[in-house]
Amino acid sequence: MAIKRILCAVDGSKITGHVANCAVELAQATGAKLTFLTVNIVPTRARRTHYWDAESMNAAAAQSDKQLASAVKSAKAAKFENYDCVVASGSAVADAIVSYADRNKIDHIVMGTNTTNELARLFLGSVATAVVSHASAPVTIVK
Hints:
Helix content is 48%, strand content 22%.
């Protein structure tokens, strides 16, 4: 199966640049289009209200821009231009990533993980574990 569309999930963490570099290399090697995706968490209570003030909206947009900046920097450093940036919203990060990938016929997902402790993974869960478990596309996990 040829890889035509790659999704790189980024969160602005310390490893975002490394994750983005891996995704860019894969996209360059396969000639695929790359989409950098970040997810804004929308608390369940907030989803039930119809009012979001300008300050809340601006803060969310600024956070998304910051999370995507490192990924864009990686693409530009590699002189890779076949990418776009997307912001998704949801109450569960993994669900938002998988849903976006399914809706947009993504062939491969690249994402990172910061959870190095099994006990932390047990209590906190892992977005990467959930994406691997539910995604229909292959997933590359970068540490």
